[in-house]
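The authors assume throughout that readers already know how a fold can be written as discrete tokens. What matters is that the chain and its backbone geometry are given together, residue for residue. A single example would do more here than another paragraph of explanation. For illustration, here is how one protein appears when written out as sequence plus structure tokens.
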Amino acid sequence: MALNFTLIYGSVRSGRQGIKAVHFLENQLQQRGHQTTLIDPLEYTLPLLDKMYKEYKPDEAPEVLQKLAAILKDSDGFLIVSGEYNHGIPPALKNLLDHFLEEWAFRPSAITCYSAGQFGGVRAAMQLRMTLGELGMSSIPSLFPIPKVQDTFQEDGTPINIKIEKYVAPFLDEFEWYARALKNERANGIPY
């Protein structure tokens, strides 16, 4: 079953390295026959959260929120790609997540975390799990941490060491499983 996945990237820093991981993951999902959409906070500039999308009257939300809401509603799952900023979630990612609520619900998320150091961003991933669960898109049990992301991929996301393709496969298998299961259940209705 082909699925529609949205990749959500969290960094707006100059010289950002995680975008290489995003390109790698996007390619891996497309090779599996899935459709992908990337939400990059550099392309979808959002104001700091004042009102959530749902708090606007119909058709009065800023255009960028309307466009993002349509993307999210069509998604079968969300692959979050997050760096670690001072042991936490990048502010652009948290701001993007907090603008929406129902649009995330009853779809799985999967966390890929990265860092320039050896821990691969796992401290941010633990904080992300709490936020994602509260938003209704609980994360799958597995994480895909990428230590030393700057040394792992070429600019276009091509892996420098192809073993990473072997390591990512079970993570994506699990994500697909949850996405298929929840898609089937959403077709039967949601609890509220």
